[in-house]
Request: fold
Amino acid sequence: MTVLSAHEFYSNCVAPSGAYKFHVAGQWSESSSGKLQAILSPQTNSTFAQVQACTQQEVDAAFQAAKKAQKDWAKVPLWKRAELLHRVAALMRENAQPIADVLVKEVAKPAAEALTEVVRSADLISYTAEEGLRFFGQGQLLASDSFPGQDRTKLCMASKVPLGVVLAIPPFNYPVNLAVSKIAPALMAGNTVVLKPPTQGAVAGVLMVQCFAAAGLPAGVLNCVTGKGSEIGDYLIAHPGVNAISFTGGDTGISICHKAGMVPIQMELGGKDAAIVCADADIELAAKHIVKGAFSYSGQRCTAVKVVLVEESVADQLVPLVVAGVKKMTVGMPEDNAQIVSVIGPSSANFIEGLVKDAEEKGATFCTGPFRRETNLIWPVVLDHVTPEMRIAWEEPFGPVLPIVRVKSVEQAIDHVNSNRLALQGCVFTRDVNKAIQISDAMETGSVQINSAPARGPDHFPFAGFRDSGISTQGIPKSLEFMCKTKTTVINLPTPSYTMG
Reply:
């Protein structure tokens, strides 16, 4: 396979004006609306690129193309689907840099992390291809006489069949990885896909789709429409052509659930991931993981540590170590691999600042100096002596802010976790493995890490949230399971004649 130059990689999906095209029925096109959606640089709030502002008619065309292609795609042998996905993964690895460069500019992802996201996405596609061969290559045969009172008069063959057309909507913070985590399982299951990239992240999404197109995916199997979610989002979600929805994001997902109707839904929403630090914990280890877990990519991760619940007896030992680790972090430009970079936009920065000001007014202690912000760049904030009356104790900042709540007991910490409507992940630090398991059992969250910060992955691990943090389970095997339904064929046999000897 030939490695494309950046110009060649971009050429098919870029209009003469320089705006990025959308992809429907195997064709890169400009919108009939004549309108473009600006993609702003998080660092400057200035226009970085433009994508097409697709119309509802172009959304209709995407679903029509997907529906038309689906039945033929479902007939493609599994090994050929897997082979094609392997080609996509290879193309993505060999041409990762142009996509990574866009991630740096479009979502302010540090350069090294941006490249890692693209390579990790290629690995996810390859793993999905192999796991899909195993998963969809197996059926089930049931005999009627295993149920009381039944003779052996029926044989039931249970097989896995596609859902149809899957609507995939990834978030801005991982616009490539969380797109392919939906697309690859859907395609291996025999579904076709309509992708709506996030507004911030749309260019990376377009380039990712180019990898599928260049690998030879049949027309209509993967379609990509761009534009503001506020303008075409509801139309996509309620479209009669949707047979399933896979969404990652925040509270918008709750609205989607109300509007989607009777289609299967896979959702990973927000989290207020708590780190419980017990009195017997390795405090240096806890501090190290909390700093990285809270502030990596400026805290713009659903799995970031978003509140620390530390037993009072060790709080004075933990807080200075956390603050010291935070003060060593670099603040600046993603091109320079700074650890703290601009958050995604003004509305996010304003929301984060509002949470911090609320905590300040209610008596939280600023451990990292006065609040500092330039445009969308917010210097990391550690807040001690946070109380339940403060919004930051419960709400998800999705930014470089870490609240620390001192608790009298582990039971109080668990109660705080279980009282939040957000219940994605959490972690516990203790030297006592029995205590760790007991705390994990008591925490009503989708995942619990022991002696490490929360994390998504490896990508084949189950990943789910409770309460308002999600519906259904992700992770490659679970996503493959979501992307299909069970079909049974029953063979009726003659009534057996037998005698009891």
In short: The domain at 6-269+470-486 is CATH 3.40.605.10 (Aldehyde Dehydrogenase; Chain A, domain 1). Residues 111-136 form the longest helix (26 residues). The chain has a mean pLDDT of 94. The chain is about 40% helix and 20% strand.
